[in-house]
Structures are given as structure tokens and as C-alpha cells.
Design goal:
The complex is a heterotrimer of chains A (292), B (395) and C (240). With 292 residues, chain A is an all-alpha fold. Chain A is built from eleven helices and two strands. Chain B has 395 residues and is mainly α. Chain B has a domain of 246 residues. In chain B, helix 3 packs antiparallel against helix 4, helix 3 packs across helix 9 and helix 10 packs parallel to helix 13. Chain B is globular. Chain C contains ten helices and ten strands. Chain C is an alpha/beta fold and 240 residues long. In chain C, the strands form two sheets. Chain C has a six-stranded mixed beta sheet, with helices on both faces. Chain C has a four-stranded antiparallel beta sheet with strand order 2-1-4-5, covered by helices on one side. Chain C has a domain of 165 residues: Rossmann fold. Classes of the chains: A mainly alpha (292), B mainly alpha (395), C alpha/beta (240). The interface between A and B is large, with 69 and 70 residues.
Chain lengths: 292, 395, 240
């Protein structure tokens, strides 16, 4: 039972990271109908920015902040350049462009920072606190869960209550109509990418200290798991993305704990295929009628 | 290598189609024969290192040709073909070890292992293809990405695969009849390029056959194709199976050339490199598969040689040496997709003829809204299947 | 009197397929003009070109002194031009209140009070909507959606309103009410209305002027009563 509790909380903590990745993917998907395969690579680049700034200034939190800013900026740059005409590109092309960007960014990081695995400090202690005699969460885990929750709530508030959020939703749901109503759709889509970039950078900053280590390919697995979370929850629903991420984290934690940690990715593959084949729109999106 | 169809009056259509397919077959056989001659000449001329590179090239060509069939002709993207190569590679490795342990030798041993690797991968591909046939666009890409990332990790779970270290691949030395100074690399190049030529020949015939047409029909318009009587899932599963077989052969050859099968050589990087070769060479084109493979095998070497020759300080030189090739592939991938969707093969096709022939649809932007479409409510782009609900747009 | 809209030699089309071949007309302020013609005549294309969704290949569009062709779509609502597109364009995932708010967002935070006022006016004008504030677009009936679409356009307090087939799919009584509303707005606020309609009879009955398009050209234009009386024209282009 203790093991089960520990695995559950551990899974939730990792799940929060996958939820963040999933959320960033869903934001971009809903805005521009692009599944950004470079999202993980963009995030790792931001983590490298964090290290550089931390090392230069001696402050962890300045580096953390720099990563988030870098995420925002990188999101804008990528959307304005590579995915500028995404709405006119067939899906295959957007996937390939994303993959190309993934390769390019990871290689660029390797060129400028080297591929050696680097130590990456955690913001808080990673020692697990026990409640009674059950080891549950470490302060770092709590920080992870907390910061993802805060980001979620902030984005939720932005989308639901602010004029900008309304503009963004309109731009994503009905771009032509939005234009007629005076919404600067292009700007709103770019903003969506920028916010997704921030969320992705946050995910990287939270997951790398967990023993993953910092190296250019570090976010590849996390991207796959975040993608799985987004699929489980449904690409159309930001809330679904978050829940999907948490579910993925917990399920994989059990798989890792009871089956063996080297089968985690295989378990993810099985989960992914299972959801895609049984309920492809995810748990939270409405099931559509069949066309034709 | 795909033929363009000519139109004939119906009465002579049947006869002329058969005549056409004969002439295509003859043409492919001629190309095969020519290829054999070229291979013999070049490998005889090259030194050991160059032959080793050719051997690597051959392995890539098999897999890239298979992937271009899948993604180009059949319209199903795969980011996991490296994992399929792994299946072929490990099958060959395991079998060769078994043969060696039991003292079995002979010229037929290696081809048998390669065949077994091909079949094993084809079977897996058929099974995975059943799932993949129900997926489209980014969903399929994500699922194959997961495959590409996850499958190599199985090697650390089962002891037979010997984890990260991998398996050594033993095989017989080149046949005595070729002479004592016939080098190993020369032999590897022969085997590898031989496999590549066979793969290209078979896939070329497939592409110009009815099956190839079915694949293109399904790719271009599933609904129309199924209304015309084609089974969409069956066509797609067939494409996946054949593509996997080619990848499995490529993987087996790869293991033979590297003399090892380890998870590191079949990781996500390989899958993405294969895709790069397909796109840069030209989606759906076997000529493109060869061109793309040449690029990914040789461009890296040229770049690293050039970097090493620049005499930069050690840290930079090492980083550039390790990563500039990939950076180049990534950049090329983006540029090709945005500016030159037909890849190198498309570029070559355009040169002799001012009027460009039918290019793979997937390389082109969707046709613009027709006047009638303006009367429809937006959204413009169709959501990918599994059918997603129309974006909460308008009413 | 300066015309509310002056269109000179307008050409437009889609990626090499020309649809409009030299359209000329002018709209006087505080008038209702109906654009009529068979399917494919170019009515919707005309509206889309006028609102900026489709760039013209040739010709000019002037609203007062402003050359609209240089003004991006998003900026036209600030000039007082509102377009209710074909299909209405109600955003079904948003609520009625959110749809209406959207209509005034272009004013920014400084115009918030004006927008709130305008929204209240719309609720007063369309009573049923005021009871449906929190409902999502997909929960509304056709008539309610049409009210919402027009109401949303009115939140911008436009001086010129373009509507593409507002009666589509609506019961005759609802259509009549909407037409009456347009006439009322014209009289009360001086609104200029450009109306594309399939329902020719009801359109010409409330319109002051009519423009008949065929194959991308203006084949007839004039006061609505004259067009109604011209039987030959009606048979040839309007189907009755």
C-alpha cells in the first residue's frame, strides 16, 4: 500500500510535467492546427538558457525566469518564421517542419553548449518527505505540482475572463469572423505560441532536475509522454490536456514500479495506441459524428 | 521511377496496359542490370573506407526507399522507422549468433538471416500497420514517434539483447572464390548494395503496378478510393508491411555492416535521419530515396572533414564535428518543406521539362477556396481523422 | 451628399479564377440596398471583397474619403463597417454574452463603457437574447443565432452594415421581423445597409435600391420599386 501511494504521488508529480507539455501542445493546436513536434526541443533550449544565466549571475531564480522569457520569445520566433503559413500547409508538411526544427534545435544546442550530460540543480530539496511512514513527495515535487497548477489557473483565468483571452479564443475558433470583428488574429495566434513556449520551458525546468540531466535530447521522451497526455485528454481541451498528462504520469508510474522502469516508454506506447484506437478524440472532447 | 500514364482508347486499353507493364518491367530490369555493373565497377575502384561508406549507404537506401513508399506513395508518415530497422538488425544478430554457436556456415547463411530479419519486421509492421491504418496526420506521426522512442528501450529489459552494449554480429568471411585479398569492406559493400538494388527494383515495380496506383488513390482521396471499391485499411496495411520489410532488410544489412546491433545505433536519431533523407531526396520518389540517402550518409562526412580541416579550437571543433551535420539536415528539412516540397527529385524533374509533371500531392499547399467554398462557413482546413469535431466555430 | 460607399471598377476572384468583372455602384447614406442575382453571380464575393476578406485585383472602394483597399480587415470595424457573413458567423463555443462582447473589443479598454451600453441596447432590441446570455452559441435556434449575429455587429455601432443572406433557414415571420428591424435602424440611426438576399421579393420590398448581379457584372441597378416592376428583368435574372 505504501508503495502504491508513493507511486501515485510520484506519478502525479511527473504527470504535472507531462500536463504542462500537453497543455502547450493543445494551446498551439487549437490556435493554429499545428502539432508542434519541436516543442520539447524548444523547451530544452530554454533550459540551457537558464543554466547560462544562472552560471553568469549566480542566481537560480534569475535563470529560471530567463528560461520562461526565452520560451516566450522562442515561441514568437518559431511561429513568425517557420510556421507562418501553417494554415495553408497540409498536415504532413507541418509535422515534417516540426521534426526538422527539432533536429535543428537539438543540434544547435549541441554546437553551442556541447552534448555532455550536465548537472542541473533543483530549486528545492529532492528528498522525499514522509507522512507517517509513507514516503510521499519531496519539496521539489510539491513545487512542480504547485507551479503547474498556478500556470493552469493563470491561463484559465486569462482565457475565460480577459478581453485578450476572448480575442485569442475567437481567433482560434473562427479566424475570419474574428477579423471582421476587429480582432488582430495573427497577433493572437503568435501570442498563443508564445504562451505555449513559456509553459514548455516551465516543463523542462521542472523535469530536468529529477535525475534526467541536461543534454540536448533530454526532452524527447518527455515530449512523447506529453503528447500521450494530450491525446489521452483530447487535443481540443486544455483541461483535458492537463488531466491527460496527470493520468499518463500516474499510469506510467505504476508501470515503472510494478513492471520495471525500462518498460516505461513501452507502456506509454501501449497507452497511446490504446487511446488512439479506442477513443481517439480523448477523454474530454465530444465524440464527433462520422463524416460521409 | 514512377511512370506517367498515357490515355488510350478503351478498346486497346487492356492490351496496351499489359504492353506498358512489360515495358516498365524491362526498363526496371535494365536499370537493375546497369546498377549491378555500376556497383561492381565502383566497389572495385574504391578503397576500403569508401567501400565501408558505400555499405552504410546501401543499408540506408533500403530503409529510405521503404519509408518513401510509405510516406510518399501511401501518405502515411512514420517517425519510427529506426525502430523497424532495429527489429531487422537484432533478428539478424540473434540468428547469426545462433549459426555461429552451432558451427553452421555457408554462403546461404547470411542471406537467410537477412531474409528472416525482413520477414520478422514485415510481420511486426503488419501488426502495427493495423493500428496505424486507423490513424491520420499528427496522430500517426505521434504514434510512430512513440514507437521510435520506445522500441529500442526493450533491449534493456530482456537479457537476450544484452542491453546497451548490444550484440556482436558474426559472419563468414568473403567467399574464398573471390580471392585472398578481397577485403571485408568490399564484400560488405557488395552485400549491402545488392540488397539495395533488389529493394529498389521490387519497389519500383510495385510503384508502377496496380497496387501502387491503389496506394496513391487512397493517399489522395480516401473517400473517393473507397467508393471506387478499394479497401482503404487493407491498402494502407499493405504499404506499412512492405515498408517495414524494406526497413527490416536495411536494418539487417546495417547490423552486418556495423558488425553490431545495439540500441544506440537504432535510436530516434536514425528515424529522423531516415525521414530527412526521404524529404530532402523527394517524397515518394525512389530516385529521391537514393539521392536523400547519399546526402545523409555523405554530407555528414564532408561536413566533418571540412570542420576538422578548419583548425578551430578543440571545444568548438568537437561540438561542430558532432552536431553540424544534424543541424544541416534539420535546416534542409525545413527549407525543403517550405520552399521545395518535391525535394531534389522534384528539382531534377523540373529541369528537362518546363511544365512540371504531376508532383506528390502532399508537397503542395491545399487548393485555395473555390468561389463556392466562400459560401460555406469557415473553417478552411479539414481536421485530421480520427474525425475531430468541427472547431467550435460558426453556425 | 457624399456617398457612404463608392465602388469603382471592382475586380476580384480567387487564385486566378476571376469572379467580379468591373463592378460600379454607390450607396447613399441611410439607405437599404439589396444585392440580388442567381447563385454564383458573385454576391458573396462582392461582400467579402468589400469587407476586406478578399483583396481586389483591380478597382477601388471608398467609404467617404477613405480608400478601403488599403485598410486591413481588422481595422474596418473601427471605420464603422460591419459585415455579418454568410452562415452568420456565430461562434458556437462562446456564449451569447461573449459573442456580443467580442463585437466591441476593438474599442479597447477605454471604450468598455460604450460597449457595455451598446450591449444593453442590443438586449433591449432583441428581447429573447437577453434571456439567453449565458447560453452557448450551439444551443440557440436559427432565429436566435441570426439575432445574435446582427446584434453583435450592432455592438460596434456601425454606420454601414453588410449582411449576407440573413433570411437563410429562417421562418418567414422571423425574416419579416429582421427586415423590419433593418428599416427601423435606417430610419432611427441613419444606418446604411447592403443586403445580399436570395429571397428577392422580401428584399426588394424593404430595400430602397437594388443591384442585380449576373456572372460577376452589374446587369441592372436602380430603385427597388422599379426593379420589382420590371418583369423582364425579374424573369431573366431573379427567377420570378
Amino acid at each position: 500500500m505504501n508503495r502504491f501511494l508513493f507511486l501515485t504521488f510520484n506519478g502525479l508529480s511527473f504527470g504535472a510535467v507531462y500536463a504542462a507539455v500537453a497543455l502547450s501542445l493543445v494551446i498551439i493546436w487549437r490556435a493554429t492546427r499545428v502539432l508542434n513536434f519541436a516543442q520539447g526541443a524548444m523547451a530544452i533550449a530554454c533550459a540551457y538558457v537558464a543554466i547560462a544565466v544562472s552560471t553568469a549571475t549566480g542566481s537560480y531564480w534569475l535563470g529560471f525566469g530567463a528560461a520562461l522569457v526565452a520560451g516566450f520569445v522562442l515561441g514568437i520566433i518559431v511561429e513568425r518564421t517557420v510556421f507562418r503559413s501553417a494554415d495553408r500547409m497540409p498536415t504532413l508538411n507541418t509535422v515534417v517542419v516540426g521534426v526538422g526544427l527539432l533536429i535543428l534545435i537539438e543540434a544547435a544546442v549541441g554546437i553551442f553548449a556541447g552534448a555532455a550530460n550536465r548537472d542541473f540543480p533543483a530549486a528545492f530539496s529532492t528528498a522525499t518527505i514522509a507522512v507517517g511512514d509513507v514516503p510521499l513527495l519531496s519539496p521539489q515535487n510539491i513545487f512542480t505540482l504547485g507551479s503547474v497548477l498556478v500556470v493552469m489557473l493563470a491561463l484559465g483565468a486569462l482565457f475565460t475572463w480577459t478581453p485578450t483571452g476572448l480575442r485569442m479564443r475567437a481567433a482560434a475558433l473562427a479566424p475570419e469572423v474574428a477579423r471582421l470583428l476587429g480582432v488582430k488574429v495573427g497577433r493572437m495566434l503568435t501570442l498563443g505560441w508564445a504562451l505555449a513556449g513559456v509553459v514548455g520551458a516551465l516543463a523542462a525546468m521542472l523535469v530536468i532536475p529529477t535525475g534526467l540531466g541536461l543534454f540536448p535530447q533530454a526532452m524527447e521522451g518527455v515530449f512523447v509522454l506529453g503528447f500521450t497526455g494530450a491525446i489521452v485528454g483530447g487535443l481540443e481541451s486544455p483541461l483535458g490536456a492537463v488531466v491527460g498528462g496527470l493520468v499518463t504520469g500516474v499510469v506510467l508510474s505504476y508501470a515503472s514500479g510494478y513492471l520495471g522502469s525500462d518498460l516505461t516508454l513501452v507502456a506509454a506506447l501501449v497507452l497511446l495506441l490504446g487511446v488512439l484506437l479506442v477513443r481517439p478524440t480523448g477523454l474530454f472532447s465530444p465524440v464527433p459524428e462520422r463524416r460521409v | 521511377m514512377a511512370t506517367t500514364e498515357t490515355t488510350r482508347p478503351a478498346a486497346t486499353a487492356a492490351v496496351s496496359t499489359r504492353r506498358q507493364s512489360w515495358s516498365t518491367l524491362v526498363r526496371h530490369l535494365a536499370l537493375l542490370a546497369g546498377g549491378v555493373v555500376v556497383v561492381l565497377l565502383i566497389t572495385g575502384w574504391f578503397d576500403d573506407f569508401a567501400n565501408y561508406q558505400l555499405a552504410t549507404l546501401g543499408a540506408y537506401i533500403c530503409a529510405v526507399a521503404g519509408l518513401t513508399l510509405l510516406t510518399g506513395t501511401s501518405g502515411q508518415i512514420s517517425l519510427g522507422h529506426g525502430a523497424l530497422m532495429a527489429i531487422g538488425g537484432y533478428t539478424v544478430a540473434l540468428l547469426q549468433n545462433q549459426f555461429a554457436d552451432h558451427g553452421v556456415t555457408g554462403l546461404w547463411v547470411l542471406p537467410l538471416s537477412l531474409l528472416a530479419g525482413t520477414v520478422a519486421t514485415a510481420l511486426f509492421g503488419a501488426a502495427f500497420g493495423v493500428a496505424a491504418a486507423r490513424l491520420r496526420g499528427p496522430y500517426l506521426a505521434g504514434a510512430t514517434l512513440a514507437l521510435g522512442v520506445a522500441l529500442p528501450s526493450i533491449t534493456s529489459h530482456f537479457e537476450v539483447f544484452q542491453g546497451d552494449q548490444g550484440l556482436f554480429v558474426p559472419f563468414d568471411p568473403p567467399p574464398a572464390g573471390l580471392g585472398d585479398d578481397f577485403s571485408l569492406e568490399h564484400w560488405q559493400a557488395w552485400v549491402s548494395l545488392g540488397a539495395a538494388l533488389i529493394t529498389l527494383f521490387l519497389l519500383a515495380n510495385l510503384q508502377s503496378s496496380a497496387v501502387g496506383r491503389h496506394m496513391r488513390a487512397v493517399r489522395d482521396d480516401e473517400i473517393a478510393a473507397s467508393l471506387a471499391g478499394l479497401s482503404v485499411p487493407r491498402t494502407q496495411i499493405l504499404a506499412f508491411t512492405i515498408s517495414s520489410a524494406a526497413a527490416g532488410l536495411g536494418g539487417g544489412v546495417f547490423a552486418f555492416v556495423l558488425q553490431t546491433a545495439s540500441p544506440g545505433s537504432f535510436g530516434l536519431v536514425l528515424s529522423l535521419t531516415l525521414l530527412s533523407a526521404v524529404i530532402i531526396g523527394g517524397l515518394g520518389s525512389l530516385t529521391g530515396a537514393v539521392l536523400g540517402s547519399v546526402i545523409v550518409v555523405y554530407l555528414g562526412t564532408w561536413l566533418t572533414d571540412w570542420i576538422d580541416g578548419l583548425g578551430l579550437d578543440a571545444g568548438w571543433a568537437q561540438n561542430l564535428h558532432d552536431h553540424l551535420p544534424n543541424a544541416t539536415y534539420g535546416l534542409l528539412l525545413i527549407l525543403v518543406m517550405l520552399l521545395l516540397p518535391g525535394g531534389l527529385a522534384g528539382l531534377l524533374r523540373r529541369i528537362p521539362r518546363p511544365r512540371s509533371p504531376r508532383r506528390p500531392r502532399v508537397g503542395r499547399p491545399d487548393p485555395p477556396d473555390q468561389p463556392a467554398a466562400a459560401d460555406q462557413p469557415v473553417p478552411p482546413t479539414a481536421p485530421p481523422a480520427p474525425t475531430t469535431p468541427p472547431p467550435g466555430g460558426q453556425a | 451628399m457624399t456617398p457612404a460607399l463608392e465602388v469603382v471598377d471592382l475586380h476580384s476572384g480567387y487564385h486566378g479564377v476571376p469572379v467580379l468583372h468591373g463592378i460600379d455602384f454607390r450607396l447613399e447614406p441611410a439607405t437599404i440596398t439589396a444585392v440580388l442575382g442567381a447563385n454564383g453571380a458573385g454576391k458573396t464575393t462582392l461582400l467579402r471583397t468589400l469587407s476586406g476578406l478578399l483583396p481586389p485585383t483591380k478597382g477601388s472602394v471608398h467609404a467617404g474619403a477613405t480608400n478601403l483597399v488599403t485598410v486591413p480587415v481588422e481595422d474596418r470595424v473601427a471605420l464603422g463597417i460591419a459585415h455579418v457573413p454568410e452562415g452568420r458567423g456565430v461562434i458556437t463555443d462562446l456564449t451569447v454574452q461573449e459573442n456580443l462582447r467580442l463585437g466591441g473589443l476593438w474599442r479597447g479598454t477605454r471604450g468598455q463603457a460604450q460597449t457595455d451600453e451598446a450591449i444593453d441596447e442590443v438586449y433591449a432590441l432583441f428581447e429573447p437574447l437577453s434571456r439567453l446570455r449565458a447560453r452557448h452559441g450551439h444551443q440557440l435556434s436559427g432565429g436566435e443565432r441570426q439575432m445574435l449575429a446582427i446584434g453583435r455587429a450592432l455592438v460596434a455601432r456601425p454606420t454601414m452594415l453588410m449582411l449576407d443572406e440573413p433570411s437563410l433557414g429562417l421562418a418567414p415571420s422571423v425574416t419579416a421581423r429582421i427586415m423590419a428591424l433593418l428599416r427601423d435602424l435606417r430610419d432611427r440611426t441613419g444606418l446604411t445597409v447592403l443586403l445580399v438576399e436570395q429571397n428577392v421579393r422580401s428584399a426588394l420590398q424593404i430595400a430602397d435600391h437594388g443591384i442585380v448581379l449576373s456572372l460577376g457584372r452589374v446587369v441592372a441597378a436602380g430603385p427597388a420599386v422599379e426593379l420589382l416592376d420590371d418583369h423582364q428583368l425579374r424573369h431573366a435574372y431573379l427567377g420570378f
